[in-house]
Write a structure and sequence with these properties.
It is a single chain. With 113 residues, the chain is α+β, with helices and mostly antiparallel strands. It has one domain (10-59, 66-112): Muramoyl-pentapeptide Carboxypeptidase, domain 2. 29% of the residues lie in helices and 19% in strands. A 5-stranded mixed sheet has the order 1-2-4-3-5, with helices on one face. A hairpin with a 3-residue loop joins β3 (92-95) and β4. α1 (22-35) crosses α3 (75-87). The N and C termini lie far apart (31 Å).
Length: 113
């Protein structure tokens, strides 16, 4: 997979299944290298059942392996991670209180929750 991530970090928690998109993972790994801080993945691939359980969007990119949520509590780390994602070409992000959602959508988008 990469030097920064292990495949099990991305497995669906209810069924342990799912594969992440290789191109998205390459960008995510590049972002991690640029950031120089750990990316703690709290949600990677989701099967349809788990996506419904957590209130995910019906067409969530988590279900295609093209999205992750990264634990992020400290403001300084948040800035570092966001800048690295942007530099790596991951431009679709949603900033939540305790995590950053990012996905493979190619349109620049940033949401605050």
């Amino acid at each position: 997979m990469s030097e920064h991530f292990h495949p099990r970090e991305f497995f669906c928690p209810c069924c342990q299944g799912g594969e992440m998109n290789d191109a998205f993972l390459a960008r995510l790994n590049h972002a991690r290298e640029l950031a120089g801080v750990p990316f703690h993945i709290t949600s990677g691939f989701r099967c349809g059942n788990h996506n419904r359980e957590v209130g995910g969007r019906e067409n969530s990119r988590h279900m295609t392996g093209e999205a992750v949520d990264i634990l992020c509590i400290h403001p300084r780390e948040r800035g570092i991670i966001l800048e690295a994602l942007n530099l790596a070409g991951i431009v679709s992000v949603a900033i939540h209180e305790s995590f950053i959602h990012c996905d493979a959508m190619n349109e620049r988008w940033c949401g605050l929750y």
